[in-house]
C-alpha cells in the first residue's frame, strides 16, 4: 500500500498543531496549579503531608509556620510584581523614543497584545 503525500502532510501538520495547542494548555494549567500551591496554605500543607507523612503535631506546627510566612511571601510577590512593572515601563519608554511614528504605532499594538495576554494569565 502506497501513501499519498497529499494526505500524509496535512495529517502531520494537524497533529503538530494539536500537539502544540495541547502542550501550551498543559503548561498554562500547570503554572496555575504551581501558583495556587505557593499561596494556598492548606494545599501546600496537604502536599507536605502526603509526601512527608506528617503526624498530627507536625501538621499543626508546619501549618503555623506556613501561615506565619504567608504575609511576608505575599508582600514580596507584590513588591516584585510592582518593580517588574516599573522596569518594563521604563524599557518600553526607551524603545519608543527610538522609533519613527509608524513604528511607534505598531509597537503600541504589540504592547497592547502583550498586556492583554498577561491579563489573561492573571
Give the helices and strands, then pairings.
Layout: H1 5-39, H2 41-52, H3 56-97, H4 101-121
Q: Could you tell me the mean pLDDT?
A: 83
In percent, how helical is the residue content? over 70%
The coarse overall form would be flat
What integer value in Å does the Rg equal?
A: 23 Å
The major beta sheet can be summarized as: none
What is the CA-CA span between the terminal residues?
51 Å
Q: Name the helix and strand elements from N-terminus to C-terminus, one letter apiece.
A: HHHH
Helix count, per DSSP?
A: 4
Unreliable spans: none
Structural class by SSE content = mainly alpha
Count of individual beta strands: 0
Could you explain how this protein is built, in words?
The structure is a single chain. The protein has 122 residues and is mainly α. 90% of the residues lie in helices and 0% in strands. It is built from 4 helices and no strands. Helix 2 crosses helix 3. It is flat. The termini are far apart.
Question: What characteristics describe this protein?
Answer:
mainly alpha; about 90% helix
Q: How would you summarize this macromolecular structure in one to three sentences?
A:
The chain has 122 residues and is mainly α. Helices cover 90% and strands 0% of the residues.
